[in-house]
Write a structure and sequence with these properties.
heterodimer; A: 280 residues; alpha/beta; Rossmann fold; 8-stranded mixed β-sheet; B: 434 residues; Aspartate Aminotransferase, domain 2; Aspartate Aminotransferase, domain 1; 2 domains; 7-stranded mixed β-sheet; 5-stranded mixed β-sheet; 12 strands; 13% strand; globular
């Protein structure tokens, strides 16, 4: 789906199923330098299982135009504008989303944006599902420098440190697709400066505590890989208590959880969107 | 955070795409000789058909053993994905058909494997796809042949028997300037000698039957998607950038981004054309992949020894290997093929067609057959076999002289190879004089 904000094209993945007014909306926000395609399997699954899926490309990412948003709060503002623009759950004329009809999920930078959104309009968001997340989301200076210089080393650092050992060798459930090379290709497609702006936004965001306090406890599921070196466990734990979140740790999995362990993430997401620890 | 390293080529050749079997602990890749795979429940079944989960449904479209080979080849070439096929010719066909239909046009090198030449010259025109052939040594010739109907540029990274080296970066630049992808057949170079995707090519195909399998026991092919070509921006590829009614309205670029081409090649190409690699052959080919770097090194060193011998041998008038300083692509090969310019080449006997026949029949270690890239050394005399229906004038038109002999250098002791060539040359020269 293509829409517009401020005259700029916005590309939105929907899982290719028509929306229905009576369904909850599942928002899927991608990470730094990536785009909507990181959600492809999950978007297609949930779109066929009772959810209106909204998986946008942030400005200057993937198929979206515009200028990259330089901080997490701006990203959250932009996503709320997108939700209002799309009028998901409405009839296309009267706004907007009914209270509590939105489930916000995000990966890495997208997880911070989802948390910031939830803090801004806590009653609008029923649940949060945060994947590959930690707070603060510190980014190493070497990676920031390489990204700032648009050097290939930035792509290598993210693809190598972002994947578990097993994923670097590969064993994808999607036949024939190289998880690590696909991630590299996505990062290479990012326009100059975009990856650095995203990483800097992650690195400098300080609104996590306030957003968590505003959103409150008991409505968040956090999904992380056991071998995540991009967002270490201690940073994940910083969010656990303030959000009263349930934690799911995936084995043989690094930071790129959706592509590394797609089946385990699906099962965890199914539990997360319903806030149900028992659902398989 | 220091600059990290990806696993090396030899490590990927042994491990990419596979973990030890979680059920049995098998270290080798198991042969999943099964046409189909049980759905644990109806939801999973529906999700697999909807491409909402990963997994295998039916072995014409994907198979766990074949998938290991596919992921391994993608890893070795640096591609986002790979699709294995029943043969190299099937890979070329799927590679073209994925982005080119009736009315489409291809600009191709005129120095191609005969089977490919047949496909482009005679078979595809019956389906409305035409080809203009150009000199592979002239990148501008590719540019001049492009029309509004052109959908891809195609060439071999290293041709045989004359050893023409493709200037991949320059031809890729020509393709990209026109919004077109470059598909290369890298069968004779393998990812050991050259990685075309890193040089600018967009899609790579191999006949796995040759050096990659390496033992002359299994036929197969593979198509590898580099994932860097912008299908949407080109505007010439609705097959990838618009909804496809033949697959639930799937827009492959919208859904899969960099892997759009590989996904469509599988979801349409394997589903509808059915030129599928068997799991048994995938297993055999995987054994070859594991030792590919070791073998290519020996293929190249043996070839260099043979070329050097032939350069000083009586009865030899020309050697078409880029190792020769007189070869037109000697400098280009030094730049683009620094690890060696392959192990398949032609050379000319001064005695013409009769000398060629005599030479072939006198060889004792080389096997006379129509294949290349085996562990064993192979030979063929085109004028008396593949091109036997041509007279001398037609042979010259095709670039095949009556005395041309093609060698595929294997892994034997190089002293033995040289000795066999020496005794055969001696007998051929004697016969030519008599």
């Amino acid at each position: 789906m293509i829409t517009e904000i401020d005259g700029h094209v916005v590309f939105v993945g929907t899982g290719h199923v028509d929306w229905r007014e009576d369904q909850p909306t599942l928002l899927l926000l991608h990470g730094a330098g990536m785009d909507r395609t990181v959600w492809v399997l999950l978007a297609r699954y949930f779109a066929r299982h009772g959810y209106n899926v909204v998986a946008p490309d942030f400005p200057a990412h993937g198929g979206s135009g515009g200028v990259v948003l330089g901080d997490i709060e701006s990203q959250a503002d932009w996503v709320w504008r997108l939700i209002d623009t799309l009028r998901v759950g409405g009839d296309g004329e009267t706004p907007v989303l009914p209270e509590g009809a939105l489930i916000a999920a995000g990966h890495s930078m997208g997880a911070l944006a989802a948390l910031a959104m939830a803090g801004q309009r806590a009653t609008m968001v029923a649940r949060l599902v945060l994947l590959g997340v930690g707070y603060p989301m510190g980014v190493g200076q070497a990676l920031l420098d390489a990204a700032h210089a648009n050097e290939r080393a930035a792509v290598d650092m993210i693809t190598i440190y972002g994947h578990a050992h097993a994923s670097r060798l590969g064993r994808n459930t999607v036949a024939g697709i190289s998880v690590i090379n696909n991630a590299a290709a996505l990062l290479e497609q990012a326009a100059p400066g975009v990856l650095h702006a995203d990483l800097a936004a992650c690195n400098t965001w300080q609104g996590g505590e306030q957003a968590a306090a505003s959103f409150g406890q008991g409505r968040t599921c956090i999904i992380v890989g056991q071998e995540d070196r991009m967002t270490p466990r201690r940073a994940t734990m910083n969010l656990l208590e303030p959000l009263g979140a349930r934690l799911e740790v995936l084995e043989d999995c690094g930071h790129m959880v959706m592509s590394e362990q797609p089946e385990a993430v699906l099962q965890a997401m199914k539990r997360g969107v319903r806030d149900d620890a028992s659902t398989g | 955070m220091s600059a990290p390293n990806h696993p090396g080529f030899d490590t990927l050749a042994l491990h990419a795409g596979q973990q030890p079997d979680p059920t049995t602990g098998a270290r080798a890749v198991p042969i999943y000789q099964s046409t189909s795979f049980v759905f644990e429940d109806s939801d999973r079944a529906a999700s697999l058909f909807d491409v909402a989960r990963g997994g295998h449904v039916y072995s014409r479209i994907s198979n766990p053993t074949v998938a290991v080979l596919e992921e391994r080849m993608a890893a070795l070439e640096g591609g986002v994905g790979a699709v294995c096929t029943a043969s190299g010719m099937a890979a070329i066909h799927v590679g073209i058909a994925t982005i080119c239909g009736a009315g489409g046009h291809i600009v191709a090198s005129r120095s191609l494997y005969g089977g490919t030449h047949n496909l482009l010259s005679y078979t595809l025109p019956r389906f409305g796809i035409t080809t203009t052939f150009v000199d592979p040594r002239d990148p501008e010739a590719f540019a001049r042949a492009i029309t509004p109907a052109t959908r891809l540029l195609f060439a071999e990274t290293l041709s045989n028997p004359r050893g023409e080296v493709l200037d991949v970066p320059r031809v890729a630049a020509v393709a990209h300037a026109a919004g077109l992808p470059l598909l290369v057949d890298a069968t004779l170079t393998t990812p050991v000698l050259q990685k075309p995707l890193a040089l600018g090519a967009d899609i790579v195909m191999h006949s796995l039957t040759k050096f990659i399998g390496g033992h002359g026991i299994a036929v197969g092919g593979v198509l590898i998607d580099g994932g860097r070509f912008d299908w949407e921006a080109s505007g010439r590829f609705p097959e990838l950038s618009e909804p496809y009614e033949g697959f639930h309205g799937m827009d492959f670029v919208e859904e899969f981004g960099p892997a759009a081409y590989a996904m469509r090649a599988r979801k349409e190409g394997l589903r509808d054309f059915g030129a599928t690699l068997s799991p048994g052959n995938a297993f055999h080919l995987l054994q070859g992949v594991e030792t590919l770097a070791l073998r290519m090194s020996r293929h190249v060193s043996n070839t260099e020894r043979v070329v050097d011998y032939l350069a000083g041998a009586d009865g030899v008038s020309a050697i078409h290997h880029p190792r020769m300083a007189t070869h037109p692509d000697h400098d280009l090969a030094s730049e683009l093929l620094p690890e060696g310019a392959g192990a398949v080449f032609g050379f000319e006997l001064t005695g013409g067609r009769s000398a060629g026949n005599a030479f072939i029949e006198a060889l004792e270690l080389f096997s006379h057959l129509a294949n290349v890239g085996d562990a064993k050394s192979l030979v063929i005399h085109p004028a008396s076999t593949t091109h036997s229906r041509m007279d001398d004038a037609a042979l010259l038109e095709a670039g095949v002289s009556p005395g041309l002999v093609r060698l595929s250098i294997g892994l034997e002791n190089p002293d033995d190879l040289v000795a066999d060539l020496a005794q055969a040359l001696k007998r051929a020269t004697r016969k030519a004089r008599s």
